[in-house]
């Protein structure tokens, strides 16, 4: 029995739209669910007060600090490495075995699950190098985790700078380095920044790596060698140990708001970038 | 080398990969002249310009034979400061390419790279160059505007001003008016006539009539070789070589 | 300004340029070096114990009792594979459906709203997904289907949802990259939109879609936190989708905090096995993908 194509299409349409609506509904539901229970918990106090009783009451201030410091550290380490790699791959080489090795390395790194990074950070930074569970260990490990993303987005941004700009720069008597820093990088900046912001979002949500490298101390960190807890780790512990569902929702809410805010910012920046060059 | 010869090209051959773009070129460029270079496509005209400021060095697989002597030394010598060389020979390209910055910054770009600092000096320099390029009156109130917002003809004059800012001795132009309207073309040709007294100008053009209007001497390139060179009037009325005559009559090209 | 510049300045320029190049080369090798270090450490820590107890017993042993020096990873291997397969079973149909609807069956306005929403949702942390599983999905499964609720089913569903943004994003890009002439040609032959999708567009976007699935698979098999929260973590081979399960990733995460000595080394060995399985899966998937590309006309 051959199905009349119109009927076939009608059925397909119904099935496809049903699946789509379910998908979008589920995703929206998650956000609404968390925010509905978590927003009432959020307040300036919640974010700036210290936790009481292992987080059963009080605020989440140390975790906010921990998240900011850890993420900032990761970005500070990964950005020069990542942008530098991207510059090398696009401006200083033409392919060949060396380039392929570097690209292969970056791609493999991108595919490694976060738990393996956690293991790596634990054995190298925490144990062998004796940094202990610390912001230093955490930032270093997170940095290498986000490195492939920064390399990839920076490379794309640099490649999209029109080649004539380079020619013009050289013909006006610039050195190669001047051309890279004065012409190529400024034009590629929006794309590079987008990649960085994306990585910030990823770092904020990362849990497995952080637990194994920065530990989960709930105190306010005093140095880069202090252990520290991030908001996502705090949320995980609160939820898993059942310490305080209320505060768990609050933490989750601020996490989601931060990450969604970052993604919106990225989207907005990307649109401006596209508008500027088309 | 005679005093009035600014550049002396001897036996110059340029390869890009396996392709021989220029073959055994012997050519003199006289000081403070406008030398026009005409010829059909693929005759090596643009390649020659890019050889003069060593822009060809940036192309993968480029190599050369022969010498180009400028100011007493081969520009391909081992001690040559390529960056300074490129400032000495400013180049204007066929398609105007303003950098994505303000008009002021476009003109100041090269000077800044050469180390010029100080707002006053930069202001004076930018004004001077824009005047020489014939653009000052049109943009003097909006120097902060992006260079990309100018019309095609204005952009090209901006590019001209831009290279003047690095105080070159030579101005190389590669089909600078090929996409421009007649008025912009005329303005640029006027500027070149004015600039001739301070600079030596080499103008590659697809438009033989432009060479006839502007150039003091004209050279005819064909398939990477110099066919003949001489005073423009002679080339256009009584060329020595049959091929020159055929090209000018439009029998090929 | 003499073009020859200062004495030897041409050489100095060239030398400076070489220095910059060298510095950047060193920087560029950072990614490769890190990869090497990771491999060396994980393999270095994990392989000795595998050889001590025998590779076969590690891979096929069904009992994991570190206190009694029993290190059988088979339940976890099965667990990882089941859960990943389940995630794909859920994620691919829903994801592809969304991608098709977004590119072919919706107006520009709808697309401009839904696509960013989906991309925003790619940023939700995995612990939040796990939490949702615990609070809503697990009780639901327990009440509707019986069993502890913490199960292969729960993990598959949550992981399937987690990989949706990946599959949708890349598939949408692949579909949008198809030149309009394909669609126009098909419609000109009298095909309906669905027929066009089924017979022209999906095959044309095949490599991109497969790439998105491979990426989704990679994310699913590497996921740790969400799985720990909802899969039950029983170190035994699951017999039905309602049974609790432990994956290779959870194995590591659950016990690393207190493991010592050989136990810790065994967890590194788990990491090695995970690494290898991911490489194998990626290679198989990529080979299949390129073979599909090869036979496609």
Folded structure, characterized:
The complex is a heterotrimer of chains A (278), B (253) and C (297). With 278 residues, chain A is mainly alpha-helical. Chain A is 77% helix and 1% strand. Chain A has helices at 5-38, 44-48, 61-91, 97-111, 114-128, 135-159, 163-171, 176-205, 208-214, 231-240, 245-277, and strands at 51-52, 57-58. Chain B has helices at residues 45-52, 82-88, 103-113, 119-132, 136-139, 152-164, 182-195, 208-214, 232-237, 242-249, and strands at residues 5-16, 19-30, 34-38, 62-70, 73-74, 89-92, 170-174, 200-204, 217-222, 225-231. The model of chain B has no long low-confidence stretch (mean pLDDT 90). Chain B contains 10 helices and 10 strands. Chain B has a single domain (5-249), classed as Rossmann fold (3-Layer(aba) Sandwich). In chain B, helix 3 (103-113) crosses helix 4 (119-132). Chain B has a 6-stranded mixed β-sheet with strand order 6-7-8-3-9-10, sandwiched between helices. In chain B, strands 2-1-4-5 form a 4-stranded antiparallel β-sheet, with helices on one face. By secondary structure, chain C is mostly helical. Helices cover 77% and strands 1% of the residues of chain C. Chain C has helices at 9-53, 55-60, 74-104, 108-121, 126-145, 152-176, 180-188, 193-204, 206-222, 225-230, 248-256, 261-295, and strands at residues 64-65, 70-71. In chain C, strands 1-2 form a two-stranded antiparallel ribbon. In chain C, 47% of the residues are buried. Mean pLDDT of chain C is 85; it is low at 1-5. The B-C interface holds B 70-73, 75, 77-85, 87-88, 167 and C 1-11, 13.
Key structural traits:
heterotrimer; A: 278 residues; MetI-like fold; 2 domains; two-stranded antiparallel sheet; 1% strand; globular; C: 297 residues; mainly alpha; 77% helix
